[in-house]
Design brief:
single chain, mainly alpha, globular
Length: about 290
């Protein structure tokens, strides 16, 4: 009898899974707080946008979001945002590489300058960029002889969006490069791999998920940017008018339903693009883990 009880106790000890230690008290409480916080900060405000849009008829909604002026602002906003995020993904990755892999005088100053678009008020950034790139500005007057106009053109919008999106890529890629195993690069070099092959086969797969994350963050910030763009854009309808400015214009005209309708379209398109990027990021991460195994 005693032996059977001992055997049962031993079996119970073997089948019982160890309870992982958690600092926060309980999964349900933590999850409840998370859902409550997200609902108050994110879901309820976004729901208000959709509810206000539902006050319009379907014909009124289609007319509000598909007019030629609104479609032109969509094309400019999303096109410039995607291009600016791509530029930052390329050159921001290079900046992160330099800051991590090299030691040089003034490195801390350059590292601090990367965060300047975070701290600088967007209106100040817009005024500064307009002053620099205006035809009589420090940089603009150098471009004028080549008939290159930046301020008050779509090119100026691209410059502003690239400026405010750079820190997102650098600060996302930088920690990954710091934790990357340089022994793998040295092993590949010792086996005769070229620098390009080391980059494409060893380094790039490691930083690709972080690079996609930085790209998504830079794109998300660019699509909703207003302060730094409105000064340098020129705000000419059908040419350099961004969608956030068009929404502000609708609000100033007390057309709240029209403003929320345009905002709903921007929200849906941005969500689809970000979801696609996140799925691609998850796929690249799983692929990288499978290669390591």
């Amino acid at each position: 009898m005693g032996a059977s009880i001992a055997a049962s106790a031993g079996t119970a000890r073997r089948t019982t899974k160890p309870v992982p230690f958690r600092v926060l008290p309980g999964f349900r409480l933590s999850l409840g707080f998370t859902l409550l916080y997200l609902s108050l900060v994110v879901l309820i405000p976004l729901s208000a946008v959709f509810l206000k849009t539902f006050t319009m008829t379907w014909e009124g909604f289609i007319e509000a979001v598909t007019s030629a002026r609104v479609v032109a602002s969509y094309q400019l906003t999303f096109g410039a945002s995607l291009l600016a995020a791509f530029i930052n993904a390329v050159f921001g990755g290079i900046v992160a590489w330099v800051l991590v892999r090299y030691q040089f005088p003034g490195k801390r100053i350059i590292d601090a300058l990367v965060d300047l678009p975070f701290a600088l008020p967007t209106a100040v950034a817009g005024i500064a960029l307009t002053t620099l790139y205006a035809p009589n500005g420090w940089i603009g007057q150098l471009l004028t002889p080549f008939d290159i106009k930046v301020a008050f053109t779509p090119l100026g919008i691209l410059v502003a969006l690239t400026f405010i999106g750079l820190p997102f890529v650098v600060r996302t890629v930088q920690p990954v490069l710091e934790e990357a195993e340089r022994e793998l690069e040295e092993a590949a070099a010792s086996l005769g791999a070229s620098r390009w092959k080391i980059f494409t086969k060893v380094i790039f797969p490691t930083i690709l998920p972080a690079l996609l994350t930085g790209f998504a963050l830079a794109f998300a910030r660019a699509t909703g940017e207003y302060g730094s763009v409105v000064f340098i854009a020129g705000n000419m309808p059908m040419i350099s008018e961004i969608t956030p400015l068009f929404i502000i214009t609708k609000l100033e005209q007390y057309d709240y339903a029209g403003a929320t309708a345009i905002a709903t379209v921007m929200l849906l398109v941005s969500f689809i693009l970000l979801l696609t990027i996140n799925v691609l990021q998850a796929w690249t991460r799983k692929r990288g883990q499978a290669v390591k195994v």
